[in-house]
# Entry
Amino acid sequence: MRILSIRALTGTGALARFDLELNEHVRLFGLLLKKFPDGKYRTHAPNSCGKHVASFHPVIAEQITRAAVAALSERTAHAER
# Structure
């Protein structure tokens, strides 16, 4: 699993949009990273026709979210240099 790209968002209630290569056969685009008031992070799949285009088992959702938070932190650290 790897983050292909990540773009920080401002003023949307979300932290970032990102693209993910889940494995050599599956790529997901436009995932949304959010941070909730309790400090927890969550990843949401994009919508099409008002419905999410994908869902994730809690184990893989946590792995995706951790990877996105790490990628965003790394990107932010590089931007501050």
